[in-house]
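Protein 1 of 2
SEQ + STRUCT:
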Amino acid sequence: MQSYQAKKEKSLLQNLTACEINIEISTVAKLLEKQYSMSWAFNQETPLDGFFDLKACIQKPVTIAPGEIVPIPTGIYPQLKSPNFRIICSSHTDVVYEQGLAVADGISTFEYSFRNEIWLLIENKFKQAQTIQPTQKIAIFSVNYLPRMVVNYVDSIEEIEWKNKSAKSFIQKIKKKLMPDIYDVKKEYEPAMGYTRETVNRYVTGGINTQKITKRGGHASEYSNTLPYSSGGEFDGS
């Protein structure tokens, strides 16, 4: 009989989006299953597990020198049933800690269209040579949701009120350091052109009435004589 906690945890799975995937096991992996009396199927300790171990599908030990990168097969042929997901293979924490062996490119991704065996580039980050044994775990297999992307090219992206100031400052520092002739140039002072701040304030507060002087021959307001010069010429009151 299931405990209350187990039932509670299983109930969490009801609203999760399911990723259906077909897995084909390679011929070499099947031979290793018989030779080592083990299963190549993914291990799942609990129904909540969202990741699985990937094993080295090799028949002989492989030694990796310090700093060397070696491709290792996993014996897994995946087929995602939906393009809304992608496979992610990442370093296994235990293997990194114990042997310094990590996925060389950080994470390896495999999209919906991938139909082949997963091979991983394994890098030895230790100063001593490390050996991978047949069937030993080498990485982590998981999937993540991948929404459809629609790209719109625009002349200028919109500003946002909640900016990441630290990130913006960091990027500006990089720009100024790498391209100082473009991004680290001090702008020369340019005198203000057009109306003065005082004139603008008078427009805003109603000190200059422009509605009645837009029509020629009409009655001009009492403030029309104070209208300043503009680029179009001087107002003559007509």
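Protein 2 of 2
SEQ + STRUCT:
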Amino acid sequence: MKAPYSNLVAWQRADDLFIEVHRMTLEKFPPHEKYELGGQLRRSGYSVPANIVEGNSRKSPRESGFFFNIACGSLSEVGYGLHAAKRLGYIDQQTYDRLDLLVRQTAAPLHGLLRRVRFGKLMLSQGATIIGWVLLVSELL
């Protein structure tokens, strides 16, 4: 049986991004950076899909949104880490462009998840109720 989060495009792309970033830091970074900038990139890269999984498992929109927001912050951190790695000469322009595209392709559906949570369109399969949505919308107004 597939995990419920595995159908989310945001998670699929974040998972792909994490694997790519993880491999890249171990293969291309100099030895002294594998545990500094490389380690931070791996941690922030892991945090994106992990927080999507956590947010998807929550029953309230507020809790889901909390974890999706953390995923967005971690994704921004990955983007900056890649920028820093390029400026430091650890990755070439082609590698940067490929990974930056993955970051942007992950951001789009992740922001869609956040919009769905904020505006009351989260899937009912996540345990949301009509009363919960009315409360959520009233808090936003």
